[in-house]
Amino acid sequence: PYNTETGVRWSVPAVFPRENAKIVILFDELAQATADVQKAIFQLLTDRKIGDYTMPDDVIMLAGGNRLEDRSGAAQMLDATRSRLRHFEMRVDVDEWLDHGFRVGYHPMLLAYIKSNPSELLVRDEKERYGSRSPRTWGDGINKLLFLNDKAPLTPHMFQAEVATNIVTGK
Q1: Per residue in 60-93, pLDDT tens?
Q2: Stretch 135-163: mean pLDDT
Q3: 57, 20 contact by CB (below 8 A)
Q4: Which residues pair with 66 in a beta bridge?
């Protein structure tokens, strides 16, 4: 949003379609958005309009995000927005994750570790020193680190520190 002499106006992102296009727009991490942004998305979801902009009919809008109990920075969503969405909780399936990891080329050491330690794929523990672990943490962070280590090996201590950092930051 931005202020004008007559009030607040919403800037429409340049990536929003201006004509009918069969696309999906994902409002990811909606629960981390400010109340003003949630209100704007609420208008799009309910009226398919925001300010002077109208979302084309062929566009499908989805929202994604974490739950409060995931401790991922999500906040309580505005009730008006939350009540107009269908909520689905994803379940973690180790075999499906391993199949996906094999198809997309995850590091063999990572796949072997999770296969041997399936309970490590998703760990939500308030007392966990380096934060929670999730399929995304392993796939996006640890996997990249393993391939990096193949190119420029780290000492075991350095590798452990990097793994801990990647678990905490998800990078």
Answers
A1: 888 887 776 666 666 778 888 888 888 888 788 9
A2: 69
A3: yes
A4: none
Burial annotation 13-44 (CB, 10 A radius, 16+ → b, else e): eeeeeeeeeeeebebeebbebeeeebbbbbbb
Take residue 124 and report the two structure tokens written for it. Answer: 């939500």
DSSP-based three-state secondary structure for 141? helix
Positive or negative: CA dihedral 15, 18, 22, 28: positive
Angle at 118 between CA 115 and CA 120, to 5 degrees: 120
The helix (H) or strand (E) run that includes residue 28 is: none
Residue 160 binned pLDDT confidence (cut-offs 50, 70, 90): low
Distance CA(145)–CA(133), nearest Å, equals 15
20 Cβ neighbours under 8 A, 6+ residues apart: 56, 57, 58, 59
Is the pTM higher than 0.85? The answer reads no
Which helix (H) or strand (E) element contains residue 60?
A: strand 60-63
70-103 burial, b if ≥16 CB within 10 A, otherwise e?
A: eebebeebbeebeeebeeeeeeeebeebbeebee
The full length of the chain comes to 171
The amino acid that residue 33 corresponds to is A
